[in-house]
Amino acid sequence: MSDIEIRDDRAAGRLEAVAEGEVVGHIEYFVLESPARALVPVHTVVEPAHEGKGIAGSLARELYAVAEREGIPVAPLCPYVVKWAERHPAVAPPADPELLAVAKDWLRAHPGRF
User: Fold this and answer.
1) Are 47 and 69 in contact (CB under 8 A)?
2) pTM reported for the whole predicted model
3) DSSP secondary structure string, 26-71?
């Protein structure tokens, strides 16, 4: 993978992969506040011209790193992040089923958000 910068745009709920000033991929997420604070990735996108370069995996890895730095769990709803976490249990601990259920409820209550 070439020089990719990953930045967290918390206000927009996007973890972005940037190459040469262009966003080439991102994970859309929200922060669950209750019953516990958690990062909830909902959707991962990599621009077609940049697929196959490890960008989605780098985004998923950074999402878990952000959560670890903040001392909060990840409750993944994004199918890609779920699969990535299954393949990387050392850095992506299993999500609490209660947090996943609450995250799904939050997403259903905010249909226009994603």
Assistant:
1) no
2) 0.93
3) EEEEEEE-SSS-EEEEEEEEE-GGGTTSSHHHHHHHHHHHHHHHHT
